[in-house]
């Protein structure tokens, strides 16, 4: 119960600002129209339930006049249901567009305000792909909040409406099992409630693991765009350390599908010499497309060591430049860095 109360509080905190914004009257009007149509839809369900009783009674009694009349009544009910369904979909989507547009603008402004997007990277914030999250999560929040809210309203009103109908039918149709007449007041109501409770528990038990699976699916789909996957994609990107001010001396940890390795330019006996440790790479630890890689570059004394996803894959010693700049390179293709940390080695 506490979890439910906390969840509802979070939903209210996220949803309420729109209905207090400059677009509140349009949003409140559309929401009221959608709720009114939902209530009318429940009324249509009651009418079609009553119609079935009259229609099949006419068939049983072979009452031709009543049959013809009920066919006309059905056409009227069906036409009304179609009109309500079309307008509900139209107004629902209109509300979703306005609500989602306002929320997206709000979160984008907060994300970009005061360089928050940059500060999050420096702070090592665990939030992955904020831009993708704003796009997808706002869309899912608006659509699912409306769907679940209207569904809950429909269920409550339908329960209150059909509770009376089922209770009345329980009196007209006594429960007869194996030739024994059981006198249970409102047995159809209790049977429906037991069925609903069992179905809800079963659905929760089967569906609860889908929450984490759906979360991971969104994360991986958002990550996927950062990783080049085509064989024809050629790029030269990585992290540079011990960079001289003029750029003539440098050591770079190469990134990409070929694996992680060190290369650069070193000063050996007064002569600039280029080195490339690609062939000496111990192991290719690059993860498949769509997953982030963790690079750890250890620079101490005259040595540089590169670890990719927890495994040392390349190292070199004898680096002449003991102090220098740190740089990030993206050449030939977009590359993303996140959770960047600098630690002093003792």
Report on this model:
This protein is of the alpha+beta class and 346 residues long. The chain has two domains: 2-224; 236-331, Jelly Rolls, CATH 2.60.120. 55% of the residues lie in helices and 17% in strands. It has helices at residues 2-15, 24-61, 64-112, 116-123, 130-172, 187-207, 209-224, and strands at residues 175-177, 180-182, 236-243, 250-255, 261-268, 271-276, 295-300, 303-308, 311-316, 325-331. The strands form three sheets. Strands 6-5-4-3-10 form a five-stranded antiparallel sheet, with no helix packed on it. The protein has a three-stranded antiparallel sheet with strand order 7-8-9, with no helix packed on it. Strands 1-2 form a two-stranded antiparallel ribbon. The longest helix has 49 residues, at 64-112. The radius of gyration is 33 Å and the shape is elongated. The two termini are 50 Å apart.
Keywords:
Jelly Rolls, 17% strand, 346 residues, alpha+beta
SSE layout and pairing:
Blueprint: H1 2-15, H2 24-61, H3 64-112, H4 116-123, H5 130-172, E1 175-177, E2 180-182, H6 187-207, H7 209-224, E3 236-243, E4 250-255, E5 261-268, E6 271-276, E7 295-300, E8 303-308, E9 311-316, E10 325-331
Cross-sheet strand order for the largest sheet: 6-5-4-3-10
Distance between the ends: 50 Å
**Fraction of residues in β-strands:** 15-25%
How many beta-strand runs? Answer: 10
What's the SSE pattern?
Answer: HHHHHEEHHEEEEEEEE
- What's the shape? elongated
Which structural class is indicated by helix and strand composition?
alpha+beta
């Amino acid at each position: 119960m506490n979890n439910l109360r906390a969840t509802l509080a979070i939903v209210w905190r996220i949803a309420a600002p729109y209905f207090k914004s400059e677009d509140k009257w349009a949003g409140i009007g559309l929401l009221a129209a959608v709720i009114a149509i939902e209530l009318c839809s429940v009324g249509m369900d009651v009418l079609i339930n009553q119609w079935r009783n009259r229609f099949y009674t006419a068939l049983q009694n072979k009452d031709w006049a009543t049959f013809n009349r009920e066919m006309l009544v059905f056409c009227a009910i069906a036409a009304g249901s179609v009109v309500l369904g079309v307008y509900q979909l139209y107004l629902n989507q209109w509300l979703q567009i306005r609500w989602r547009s306002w929320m997206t603008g709000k979160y984008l402004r907060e994300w970009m305000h005061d360089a928050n997007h940059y500060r999050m990277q420096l702070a090592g914030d665990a939030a992955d792909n904020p831009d993708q999250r704003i796009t997808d999560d706002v869309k899912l929040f608006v659509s699912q909040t409306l769907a679940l809210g209207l569904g809950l309203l429909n269920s409550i009103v339908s329960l209150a409406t059909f509770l009376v109908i089922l209770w009345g039918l329980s009196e007209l149709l006594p429960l007869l099992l194996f030739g024994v007449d059981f006198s249970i007041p409102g047995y159809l109501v209790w049977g429906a409630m037991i069925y609903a409770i069992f179905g809800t528990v079963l659905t929760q038990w089967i569906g609860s693991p889908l929450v984490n699976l759906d979360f991971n699916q969104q994360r991986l789909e958002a990550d996927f765009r950062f990783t080049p996957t085509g064989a024809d994609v050629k790029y030269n990107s990585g992290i540079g350390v011990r960079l001289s001010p003029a750029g003539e001396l440098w050591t770079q940890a190469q990134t990409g599908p070929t694996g992680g390795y060190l290369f650069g330019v070193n000063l050996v006996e007064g002569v600039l010499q280029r080195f490339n440790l690609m062939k000496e790479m111990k192991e290719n630890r690059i993860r498949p497309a769509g997953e982030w890689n963790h690079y750890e570059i250890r620079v101490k004394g005259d040595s540089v060591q590169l670890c990719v996803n927890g495994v040392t894959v390349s190292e070199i010693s004898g680096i002449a430049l003991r102090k220098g700049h740190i740089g990030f390179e993206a050449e030939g293709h977009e590359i993303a860095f996140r959770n960047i940390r600098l630690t002093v080695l003792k």
